[in-house]
Design goal:
The complex is a heterodimer. By secondary structure, chain A is of the alpha/beta class. Chain A has helices at about 65-70, 95-105, 120-130, 135-150, 165-175, 195-210, 220-225, and strands spanning about 20-35, 35-50, 55-60, 80-85, 90, 105-110, 185, 215-220, 230-235, 240-245. Chain A contains 7 helices and 10 strands. In chain A, strands 6-7-8-3-9-10 form a 6-stranded mixed beta sheet, sandwiched between helices. Chain B is elongated. Chain B contains 14 helices and 12 strands. Classes of the chains: A alpha/beta, B alpha+beta.
């Protein structure tokens, strides 16, 4: 499968030129057993994602969108097919190796933020660095930097329940970026936010993209998908279309 | 290595945040462990105390003293072999001492005849019953395990002449002469007057059965003459080196056979007893008590452990989504396992330390209220109970922590 041509959108800044291959998925299928029934969540998906792409994955519920996202996020492995992440074969990895990849290569942003409720913003952002074994002093410095980068340098000691939804999602984004991952994987990042705050978050993504990050947004909202440069649409476990944002 | 350290620090941080956040629940759970640890350590303290009391009692018999008697200190089935043994006499002791002196490099020092009988004693209006009267020679001072607190022991001359003098056990002296010195006072034993020339130091009870302080020591010849009754006589033989007790016992048996003129092949017509044999008799009983006690109290600790396991399962269930998030951020199985194990161990450890404190306080109170009770709160017991609490945490926390570490991150993240 070839990389789709990236065309400049007339009403926006032009897309940046994508770099090296980060993700290559070939013939990936995923089967689930539900009692006696077998559900084919993915029926042979091919996908390539390059560094500094801004990608939206869309599809109605039951299309295999979530399964593909779990696969891309190395939370799950395919039943069959090939998944290379930065040249490493993820499909054959065991639990702890996947954890390592998630820790170093993937930054997650969840719809429900998934912050630790009893920890302040700083500690929440430090978490991936703790799992990476970074020394406390360095850790703190990097977490502070990440929080400043999302405009929360003055909120580092606030607990999640002391912050607005938009601020919480910014903390989550800072957490996702703190370990310099290869991709930022966001699952309905604006799903729990009002539309104005949602736009702010999407503007932040735009900035991050401009800074050179690779962003994958999984969403069912066309408005959100329009912010990306490339849209992948799924239906019944297959890729229906893959091309630049019109 | 650095990563493990970071994970450990983070695990402890989470554990204490959790315990603080669920204070009531943690206290109630810890209570089970506290009760368990208190039960086990109190039982351990009691067993320790029994042991110490037991050894103290045995020491009263003398660690370096062998007893030559007609009967052995154990249950015998063939009583007919013992009942017709010739009695031990003062002459037996004298002859035995001559054999000991004639043996070069003898392991034995001296044999002392001691006659024992129960009696009552009077001083003025006060009368005391159930007192052990020991009639013996001047050598008794060499085998006795207690010091003379006041006055002196009678000497060889007084003993052989049969002077009416006696040395009182501390309890006898206190009871007959409350609040004043017993020295130079006179007491009446079986109608005869004795002058008190010494008082023994306090010794305590023997296995809680009778008090070694409830005794009177008088010259054997005096007792014989004045009471006119032939009392039980046994010989106490002091050993020079208590590390060579077994060899000394062999020598003593040989010497006694010579004294008795026994032929080779003939069975001994006397028994040599020592505290060790007594100990061997009682050791299985002691072990049985300890085992049963620890098992029963261990059950309460087991109930506490089930409480910990239960609460850890609840904790895992409640935080399934958090586990999913942590896994997504790169927590490995080990990390999650450690997190919940440390949480369980922390509650157990806190419970264990509180329990230890309670036990310590309880044993201090008991020791003040009942000074006679031998209570021993040893450092080793402390170390053991801390270890036991940690072990309880590990054992009871392992199943839920293992389950948490194996959670599928996809399923865990979806959990609401």
């Amino acid at each position: 499968m070839s990389v789709p041509p990236v065309l400049p959108a007339p009403d926006r800044r032009p897309a940046r030129v994508p770099g090296d291959l980060v993700i290559r998925i070939e013939g990936v299928t995923k089967l689930y057993r539900m009692g006696t029934e077998t559900i084919h969540a993915l029926r042979g998906v091919n996908l390539e994602i390059r560094r500094n792409e801004y990608l939206a994955i869309m599809g109605p519920s039951g299309s295999g969108k979530s399964t593909l996202m779990n696969m891309l996020g190395c939370l799950d492995t395919p039943s069959a097919g090939r998944y290379d992440f930065n040249g490493k074969d993820v499909a054959r990895m065991v639990d702890d190796e996947l954890a390592e990849i998630r820790n170093r290569e993937i930054g997650f942003v969840f719809q429900t933020f998934n912050l630790l409720p009893r920890s302040d913003a700083l500690h929440n952002v430090e978490l991936p660095l703790i799992y990476a074994g970074v020394r406390p002093a360095v850790r703190r410095e990097r977490a502070l930097g990440a929080l400043r980068n999302v405009g929360l340098g003055d909120r580092i000691h606030h607990k999640p329940n002391e912050m607005s939804g938009g601020q919480r999602q910014r903390v989550a984004i800072a957490r996702a970026l703190v370990n310099h991952p290869s991709i930022l994987l966001a699952d309905e990042p604006t799903g729990n936010l009002d539309s104005r705050t949602g736009e702010e978050i999407m503007a932040l993504f735009e900035d991050l993209y401009e800074q050179g990050h690779t962003i994958i947004v999984v969403t069912h909202e066309e408005d959100i998908a329009r912010h990306a440069r490339r849209v992948v649409r799924l239906r019944d476990g297959l890729i229906e279309s893959d091309g630049p944002v019109p | 290595m650095a990563r493990l350290l970071q994970e450990l620090v983070e695990s402890f941080r989470i554990a204490f945040a959790q315990i603080r956040a669920n204070a009531l629940r943690s206290v109630l759970t810890a209570l089970g462990v506290i009760i368990g640890i208190v039960a086990v350590t109190l039982m351990g303290t009691a067993i320790n105390g029994i042991d110490i009391g037991f050894n103290r009692s045995l020491a009263m018999l003398g660690e370096d003293v062998l007893y030559v008697q007609r009967w052995p200190w154990r249950r015998v089935e063939d009583w007919w072999n013992y009942v017709n043994r010739p009695p031990l006499e003062v002459e037996t002791a004298e002859r035995l001492n001559r054999v000991i002196e004639a043996t070069p490099g003898s392991l034995l020092e001296v044999a002392v005849p001691v006659a024992t009988r129960g009696t009552s004693v009077r001083a003025g209006e006060l009368r005391l019953g159930g007192v052990m009267l020991f009639g013996t020679t001047g050598d008794y001072a060499r085998i006795v395990t207690t010091d003379v607190a006041e006055g002196r022991m009678f000497n060889d001359v007084e003993a052989s002449v049969g002077r009416p003098v006696c040395v009182l056990g501390s309890a006898v002296a206190e009871n007959l002469f409350p609040g004043r010195s017993a020295l130079d006072q006179s007491v009446q034993i079986r109608g005869e007057r004795y002058t008190v020339i010494g008082v023994l130091a306090k010794q305590g009870e023997f296995l809680g059965l009778f008090s070694f302080d409830n005794q009177i020591v008088a010259p054997l010849n005096t007792v014989r003459r004045q009471t006119g009754v032939r009392a039980n006589l046994d010989l106490r033989v002091k050993v020079r080196d208590k590390t060579k007790l077994a060899a000394a016992e062999e020598e003593l048996i040989g010497a006694m056979r010579r004294v008795r003129g026994q032929l080779p092949g003939e069975r001994d017509n006397f028994s040599v007893n020592q505290q060790q044999a007594f100990k061997e008799q009682l050791d299985p009983v002691k072990a049985g008590i300890a085992l049963a006690g620890l098992f029963i109290t261990g059950l309460s600790l087991f109930v506490g452990a089930i409480g910990i396991m239960n609460i850890t399962f609840v904790s895992v269930k409640e935080r399934t989504k958090e586990i999913g998030t942590r896994k997504a951020l790169g927590a490995r199985r080990r990390t999650i396992l450690l997190q919940f194990l440390i949480e369980a161990v922390s509650i157990c450890l806190i419970g264990g330390l509180v329990g230890l404190g309670v036990t310590l306080a309880a044993s201090l109170v008991l020791a003040t209220l009942l000074p006679a009770l031998p209570i021993a709160f040893s450092p080793s017991l402390m170390a053991v109970s801390v270890l036991v609490s940690i072990l309880t945490g590990v054992v009871s926390g392992f199943a839920p922590a293992w389950g948490a570490s194996r959670l599928d991150p996809v399923v865990a993240l979806r959990y609401e």
